[in-house]
Write the structure tokens for this entry.
Amino acid sequence: MITLFGYPIQALMGQLLLGLINGAFYAVLSLGLALIFGLLNIINFAHGAQYMMGAFVAWLLLTYAGINFWLSLILAPLALGLFGMALERLLLRRLYKLDPLYGLLLTFGLALIIEGAFRQAYGVSGQAYQVPKLLQGGINLGFMYLPLYRAAVVVVSLVICLATWLAIEKTKLGALLRAATENPALVQAFGVNVPVLVTGTYGFGAALAGFAGVLAAPVYSVNPLMGSNIIIVVFAVVVIGGMGSILGSVLTGFGLGLIEGLTKVFYPEASSTVIFVIMAIVLLLKPAGLFGRTA
């Protein structure tokens, strides 16, 4: 048996893969959170509920309409994007001139309402969602067995994160979004409809959460608690990366997923707290986060 640092390499690589999968979801979800906070200054605690809703939309489409995974990857984020835009226009828009704490309280309450409604309707036991046929099975690499779907999740997450970062940092639309964040009145004076821009941004962040939910459906059990189970960790990822830093959230998400996976090998008892320990250390040494800008 091949060993590394005294541990079987199969077990070590298996935990690294699991950490990379978790990191992929951390990255996509923290990307949406960082986007909404960085551009709209809203601490969106409903992000976990929107992630859960994305998984449930995929499951409902398959169960009651026979719509497969691939089409759900389009329809579920679209549905969550529309839901997010309606939420922003009806509720969140009223809070922009207030302390961000009010937005956090509102979205936290919304998350509890949404989770409670799904728990009442579907219980907490969870619903199974099958891996699409095209990505069933895996590849034997000799030192480990690599499931195709899990490898695809990592690749797709990387592509989505990179494309979003490029769109924000390198395109005219991204420049408008950043300018509208700094000086909305000036951007409005140049003929840009800032309220529509803001609504679209929040909708896109919600759509990212829905997209992650669809990706998660075949990996985890589809249940009403899946959002609340992950959102605290994702908030820690965003804080470590730097509030509002899109690239920082993505890199930190993948990095912390790998650290969490390695911790399960070398010190399993700390695997559920290692991210929060890292957050405490980072905040002590660099309060703005690893990639955040100090005021």
